[in-house]
User: What shape does this take?
Amino acid sequence: MDGSLSKKELQAETGLSRHYATKSLEKLITADYVLEEGAGRSTRYRLNRTLEQKVATIKQRAADLRITKEIN
Assistant: This one.
């Protein structure tokens, strides 16, 4: 699998109704957590890896700052 899901697969994995799967995806796409690929029945959804990398960088910087503060 390529790491993407259709809305139907998301529903099956989570137990969400079609309505709540749609609403949840809309919110996640608006917040830039999920990317939408394709259109119509072939639409797929995947995590925004760029955002995930940014979050990891921020967490690492925060950890580095805590270490630096502890040393001083």
